[in-house]
């Protein structure tokens, strides 16, 4: 087990993390300018157009996916006067900056891993940095497919806040981990938890926006768009979270002699899991769709965040990486 | 989902709709059967499932707030001694045993009853549907959520062939083709819910037919897997003492490695216990290195390394010159960062009076402000410091059980103090007790390890059920059920080359339009689709 820490690489990693924060903040400003001054955008219309364009002229394709009705107020709003030229450039610039920040974030994680010769998620600091990375990745990769640029400002601000919090309050110098964490299950269990959390953060951001936006706020993404983004992220995230919990049970079976012992972290992982399952059921239940389902989603998200931060601080237990009690 | 339902005549009957409109109607009269049916319908409705899911999550919260028996027993006793009145009330509400509480059991039993009631009829419906053919097309395909039309010479056979190639299940009729795929969604959903039931059964079986125990072993000593050898033994209700796997081992050596330098000085790096294991009486010995993430497995009975500490050895000579005690004393760790430990020695055989000693153990001793402290968990400069030595009745004969790790406080009050806070002894050094009560010698240093030994027959079934649940979940969340109808020739003049295609997905919130466009393109002979 390597004990040596490459100090140069570790320092580089810290600097890269700071660069990431800056890039995300600048990107966030770009997205905000685009939302505030750019073209009033309708994702529904834009995607419909993109779809039709690719098809043979003979074919007429009507209708749209279930759930996207065409009568949102935005679509019928009269064409506004053209936005200033700089405002049109804000979105692509912001997107480029986000990719740059994403690359810096990735590099920060990799260099930290190389500096210590292990998977770089052995403590809260490393965990939060990786989770912000996962959230931005979720946004960027979903954007490649679904063009959900409207979430950019909110995801980057969440990631910048998360990273800032990690650097300010959770930072620990790079180093080796305690024996209990020295297992390949760290790679499997924690990676899955990080990826799922990244997706849930995306969904959570969409959920918060869904609840705070007013009907008259034309420039904010529509409720339907937000709902769809949240649902997509959770549909992908939930099986990954399920897998993470199971991998955690397998690891606990190896490390602590039982696969499930109702340790506080386990309790809250379970609660989070049930809450997201409740969200999926709520979406399938009449009278719970829309706003109510979103509230369920946000409760689940709050459980996720409490598990990440609250349990370590308030409740302790085996997962606080303290001594293993006898 | 609304428009989907309208466009689907006769569909809803085939499947339990999870919507509120199937909510059970409360019976007006008091027939037992009517009430039972009402109860069952209510219990298995989606709304009830949702509420039960919430209750289930909510009910687990206290389990993370208050310490739980079997998870952190020490903290539970602490709670009882800190605030006895409150603790008693909490205990009455099972708040120290949340996951074994009757109210917790009530919720999950209701949930799983609801699950069974939900899944069984659905499974039956699904099996029936798997054998049914896709329904004939609705009258007007162009009113479906997905629709397209074009002119071209597509025949019914050709359309059916192409749809089959896209792995649709296909039925044809005069001038129409009806196709459906995505049955795996419902299959996956059923697998998931059934796997959850299986998981519960596996966990329950494990609790009934498995056992768990803790034991502390000092270097040089051994353990044989019998009920009597455990410090704490927790069997399931169906476990008999004879069924314990008859293995044994001795602990040759335990090694803990720590970071010696820098900011993380003292952080443990590795623990290794070297065992000599005998799998069954009469079998040969084998070496095994027990590590933290690497339990010893003897036919499914697993031994885990969960804790460790120091066991300094002492020799106590009493006032008559007899050796009254000679051996290792496992010490409790007081400060994990430096392994400052506390040891208790009770010497009931000492003459003329029984002796009780309270000893501090410092693995790496340095002086500090006239005191002695440990600065490192490794044993670089081990010393034992007699905090207190007492003579008198240890109170062992009054029948009350005592912890070996503490001197009974009521007896201690009646004992005579001999020594308070002596200077630390290095290995090989001796301290004479005053009043001719004898002496204590710090003869050497060993270590102890705490082991947890478990046998859980539900382990593998639980793993299989979880794996199935993930597979089912992925299917149920990614597969989309969709139907496509093709009608060729308009209603007046048959086979004129006018093709109408309609499609819909039963899956809410999913985007079928892209795939539908692909299907339309694949059916349109005007488009070159050899590439597909
Ligand atoms: C521990 C308990 C449960 C968990 C974790 C759970 C989880 C899930 C998940 C993840 C889905 C997928 C949702 C989707 O397809 O979007 C689902 C669907 C479903 N569940 Fe459960 N479930 C549980 C209990 C129940 C119970 C008790 C019922 C019966 C009342 C039930 C009825 C259903 C139904 C009808 C669906 C299909 C919804 C649809 O296709 O739209 N579930 N469940």
Automatic annotation (TrEMBL), chain B:
It comes from Streptosporangium jomthongense. Keywords: Cytochrome c-type biogenesis, Membrane, Transmembrane, Transmembrane helix. Residues 1-22 are annotated as: Disordered. The chain crosses the membrane at residues 49-66, 103-124, 190-211, 460-479. It is found in: Membrane. It is a multi-pass membrane protein. Residues 46-517 form the ResB-like domain. Signal peptide: none annotated. This is Cytochrome c biogenesis protein ResB. It comes from the Bacteria. The keyword Kinase does not apply. The keyword Transport does not apply. Its main location: membrane.
